[in-house]
Amino acid sequence: MEKIVSAKNERVKKWSKLKTKKGRLNSNQYILESWHLVSEAINANQKVEVVLTTNKQYELHQNEIDAFDGEVIEITDDVSKALGSTSTPQGIFGIVELPKEDHFDSLDMNGSWLLLDQIQDPGNIGTMVRTADAAGFDGVIFGEGTSSQFNPKVLRSMQGSQFHLKLLEGDLLDWIGKFKENDVPVYGTELNPQAVSYDQIEKQDAFALVMGNEGNGMQDKILDQTTKNLYIPIKGKAESLNVAIAAGIAMFHLKK
């Protein structure tokens, strides 16, 4: 097994840049951290090109790592710190090829989809993706202004659910138009005079649900294009619900 001992190694410098959007686009790769995420990617037949592991992590996962048919490199703790996005990285990473983007013309729109409109907090994104996975959704669409699905904090927060459903990126107005062309209802989430309580909508198999920015809600131009807008009645004195909590309530109610 090859071993890299210096954080100044050229390959390490290149991999470290994968924590940025520019670095990912230049290399057509992204970086996963922790054996849980790396193994999830391998099991989901993602194109994991390299596994980087400290000796300690190798000893913990030797059988699984030995079964991996790609390149495996041992790294030192210093290299691990250079590649990690936390103060105490676990010491195991995967270098993965960016997946090819699906265009909506090639997708079956008759499913259940979560659309994220300018959601920026990685924790909220991860919770919503995991909840969509748990609720049996077909996919999540990251709209413009939403944090990237390949942001290291978002990757950690999704905890592997990203490999269980489709994750797409694009202009939500284009996607909403496509859903409506296919007679798939699109539900926004907003408290306004035209909105109805979420529990007035029957369960269904095919629909899209849009969740808006943590502070500002959905953009007006997107609200104007939805089939119907929903709200969740608040029975106590709280001013509002966290967007991920609200998404979970709506997803499990709507999904047949």
TrEMBL record:
It comes from the Bacteria. One of its GO terms (molecular function) is methyltransferase activity. The keyword Methyltransferase applies. GO terms for biological process: methylation. Keywords: Methyltransferase, Transferase. Residues 31-102 form the RNA 2-O ribose methyltransferase substrate binding domain. It holds the Pfam family MRM3-like_sub_bind. The keyword Transferase applies. InterPro entries: MRM3-like_sub_bind, rRNA_Methyltransferase, SpoU_MeTrfase, SpoU_subst-bd. Belongs to the class IV-like SAM-binding methyltransferase superfamily. RNA methyltransferase TrmH family. PANTHER family: RRNA METHYLTRANSFERASE 3, RRNA METHYLTRANSFERASE 3, MITOCHONDRIAL. This is RNA methyltransferase. The lineage of its organism: Bacteria, Bacillati, Bacillota, Bacilli, Lactobacillales.
